[in-house]
Write a structure and sequence with these properties.
The complex is a heterodimer of chains A (397) and B (32). With 397 residues, chain A is of the alpha+beta class. Helices cover 27% and strands 21% of the residues of chain A. Chain A is globular and about 90 Å long. Chain B has 32 residues and is an all-beta fold. The chains are: A alpha+beta (397), B mainly beta (32). At the A-B interface, strand 3, strand 4, helix 7, strand 8 and strand 12 of A face strand 1, strand 3 and strand 4 of B. Strand 8 of chain A pairs antiparallel with strand 1 of chain B.
């Protein structure tokens, strides 16, 4: 080999013209494809058409029946494990994926009937102290990316962006974006609440009107629900809602403003948190805010690992997701749990009607079903949440 | 699974984390 390498004479031949021409054609074609991938195509309503973009292996993945695979995965993991096997199997899983078994509740592994139940485990009280900050982490995970939203585009990774309107949805009359709109009824009887009761419950010398300027006097008349939740008393409800109102410096609902609207002196920010398979998979409220509505986008269930986020454009607007939209003390606030192949089921505790990753024909990409939470708290016009309050979670399948 | 937060905040809002950092529920992400 050494002799061949050193002693073989190098002889240069001129390339035939046709080979050179073919090479130039190939280079031009590659440039054109890359340009087409970067171009944003709009539909008749001016909305971006969301398509699968990425290298060839992304298209191979896109051809797989990911939703069916996800449901099958969920079914397999819901099968009950023999009691003798649970501690061994779950310990092995915990070791492989780095779960901390000291902080789970219940701590006896025999009490988790399946891997799915263990995956959706709870934590012991007090193991996650809540920082005194405007924004706290809603989940255990890895901070993938964060920054400001520039020109209605959110950066997925460096250099790859997606449309904010596609992520959250926009309200346009006559557009196919909104399929159904329902009011989620809550089991709270707020019709008897008045200023006096509110002050009594809180044990303080202020009235509801003093606290909240924009409260309509007859708000009770707008409420449909009439059953009081047995596990949560009127007193607890009022104290909870009042604490959110106080903490967020209550402001009335934001009307129907576009997602890109910000007040003077403000900007839109974004943050992406990735939950690895071994992480605690419930999510909590990142601040004191009021969720006014949810939009459920049925979609694909690609993996959302950092590997895929770097390769698959529009990943977060292709996948099934639930956009929870509302407001906090600085204006608009949105939280979007995005599903993945292994965790297609997104649960929201205060929305019993929500069903994700269901069988059946999917609507076109970009369409969504919407529910409004105005019945949850007529005063705050939505579902009030305190910082780090549990909101829901991701389940296997 | 992933959670995307999109929110309006004053221009002086600052994230107190860095990309790739492990975070836990309730941990400070940013402040004004």
């Amino acid at each position: 080999l050494i002799n061949a390498w050193t002693e073989t004479p190098t002889k240069w031949y001129p390339l035939p013209l046709a080979v050179g021409a073919l090479l130039l054609v190939a280079i031009q074609y590659r440039k054109k494809v890359k340009r087409a991938q970067k171009e944003v195509q709009l539909d008749e309503n001016g909305m971006e058409i969301i398509k699968l973009k990425g290298p060839w292996h992304v298209h191979v993945l896109g051809a797989l029946p990911l939703r069916n695979m996800s449901r099958l995965w969920g079914y397999v993991n819901s099968l009950e494990l023999p009691v003798w096997f649970r501690p061994h199997g779950l310990r092995l899983y915990a070791y492989a994926f780095g779960c901390n078994l000291d902080e789970i509740e219940p701590s006896d592994l025999r009490e988790y009937p399946s891997l799915g139940a263990f995956f959706y485990r709870k934590l012991k009280d007090g193991v996650r102290p809540v920082a005194k900050a405007a924004l706290v982490s809603p989940a255990d995970g890895t901070m993938l990316h964060f920054g400001t939203v520039q020109g209605s585009r959110v950066e997925q990774v460096k250099g790859i962006t997606y449309s904010l309107d596609a992520l959250l949805g926009v309200e346009r009359p006559g557009s196919p974006s909104s399929i159904t709109s329902t009011v989620v009824e809550h089991n709270r009887d707020m019709s008897v609440v008045d200023d006096k009761e509110f002050a009594n419950v809180n044990g303080i010398e202020y009235s509801l009107d003093q606290l909240i300027d924009a409260v309509p006097k007859k708000f009770g008349a707008q409420v449909d629900a009439s059953i009081v939740e047995p596990e949560r008393s009127m007193q607890d409800t009022l104290v909870h809602d009042a604490s959110v109102a106080l903490e967020m410096g209550f402001k009335p609902p934001l009307d129907k403003r576009p997602n890109t609207y910000v007040r003077p002196g403000n900007s839109l920010f974004f943050a992406v948190i990735y939950l690895a398979p071994g992480d605690y998979h419930r999510f909590h409220s990142p601040t004191a805010w009021v969720v006014e509505k949810r939009r459920h986008f049925m979609g694909e269930l690609f993996s959302v690992s950092p590997f895929m986020a770097k390769r698959l454009e529009n990943l977060f607007v292709l996948n099934e997701r639930v956009a929870l939209l509302g407001r906090w003390k600085y204006g608009f606030f949105g939280m979007v749990p995005v599903g993945a192949t292994n965790v297609g089921s997104i649960k929201v505790n205060f929305d019993k009607d929500l069903r994700t990753n269901v069988r059946g024909k999917r609507p076109p990409p970009g369409t969504y079903t919407e529910a409004v939470y105005s019945a949850a708290s007529p005063i705050l016009q939505g579902q009030p949440l305190t910082p780090a309050e549990e909101m829901g979670g991701f389940r296997l399948g | 699974s992933t959670i995307v937060l999109v929110f309006e905040a004053p221009n002086d809002f600052e994230f107190t984390v860095h990309s790739g950092q492990k975070v836990k529920v309730g941990e400070r992400l940013g402040d004004v």
